[in-house]
Amino acid sequence: ASRLARAFLAVLVPSMACWRVVVLAVVASAYKMARRPVHAMTARDAAADAAGTLLVSARELRGAVSQALRKRLPERNDAEVLSTAEKLVADVEYQVCQGASVDAFADALALHHAMETCEDASLAGLLTESLRILTDAYRLFGLDGVFTSFNGGKDAVVIMQLSRAVFAKACVQAGRIERARMIFFELQDEFEEVEDFVRDSHKTCDLELRRYSTGFVAGLTSCIEEEEGRLLAFVLGTRRGDPNCGKQGTFEPSSDWMPPFMRVNPVLDWEYGDIWRFIRLFQIPYVNLYDKGYTSLGKKSDTQPNPALKKPGTADEYLPADMLSDWSLERAGRIKKAPKPIIEPEQCDAT
C-alpha cells in the first residue's frame, strides 16, 4: 500500500506543479491584459495592420465610447453610461481602416447619441430632421460616397459635426471604424485663423480631408474624377436665408452645366440662432474670429467685424457672434461685391 501511495504521489505532485504553472501563466496574462492600454497593438493587431486592417474588440470600443459619453453627458451616472455603450456597440470585432482613431470615432458616436437624445425644445426637432437627412445620404450613396464641405465657418462646423456623428453610427452598424470624408476649397485670401482651425479640426476629429486650390467647380470635378466618376453626394451648409441659394430642397441635383452630383442640405431650415445654440449646447470648437465680432466669413478682403456688434464707446471692440440679436444682420460685415451674371447655389458662403 505504501509503495502504491508513493507511486501515486510521484505522478500527482509533478502534475499539480504543472497545473500550478499553467494557472499562474493564465493569471499573469490576464493581469497584463488588464493593464494594457485600451488601444495598444497586439501581435494580431500588428499583423492585421500590416495588411491594412486593424481589429478592435467590442470591449475596447465600448470602453472608448464610455469615456466619450462621460465627457459629452457628464450628468449621466456610470451605470447609465455603461448601459448606453452596450447598446451602441454590438458584440463583434470592428475593422479599423487605414489607422483611423478609435477615440475620435468613439467621440463621434457619443455625439450622435447626445444629439439623438437632445431635450432642448428649440433644437430637438431640427436635429432629428438633420440626422435623418444625413442617414439617408449615407444609406443611398454609401460610406465612401458622401463628402462634407468643410470651409471652417460656423455652418460648416455644424455640418461637419453632424456628418461625422451620423457617419460613425453608420460605420458601427457595418462593423467598421473609418474617417469621415471632408472636402476643403482653399481661398487665395483666406484668414490665417480659418486655415489653423481647419488644420486643427482635421487632426482632433480625425477627418479624411481633401484640399483643392483650383476653385469650387474645378475642385468638385477633380474629386469626382478621383472617385472614377461615380455619383457622389456633397453635404453643404446652405440655409434658406443664404443669398442666391434659390429654392433648394434637402436633396438637390447639381446644375446641368456642372458634373453630376447630389447636394445634401441638412441644415436648410436652421436659422442663425440655431447654429449658435447647437455650438454652445454641444460645446463645439469654432474659429476664434467669431469671438471678435465676425458673423459671416469670406475672404479677408471682403470681410470685417459686424458693425451691429460694436461695443458702444469703443474704437474697435466687438461682442461675440452669438450675441447678434437681429439675425437678418448676419452678413452686415461683408463688403458687397458687384453682381455676377450667374451665381450657383454651391458658391454661396455658408459661414
UniProtKB/TrEMBL annotation:
Specify the Phosphoadenosine phosphosulphate reductase domain's residue ranges: 146-212, 231-305
Q: Which GO terms describe its molecular function?
A: ATP binding; FMN adenylyltransferase activity
Catalyses: FMN + ATP + H(+) = FAD + diphosphate
Q: Which domain of life is it from?
A: Eukaryota
User: What does the entry give for GO biological process?
Assistant: FAD biosynthetic process
Q: What is its EC number?
A: 2.7.7.2
InterPro entries attached to this UniProt entry: PAPS_reduct_dom, Rossmann-like_a/b/a_fold
List UniProt keywords, sorted A-Z: ATP-binding, FAD, Flavoprotein, FMN, Membrane, Nucleotide-binding, Nucleotidyltransferase, Transferase, Transmembrane, Transmembrane helix
The protein here is known as FAD synthase
Which organism encodes this protein?
Pinguiococcus pyrenoidosus
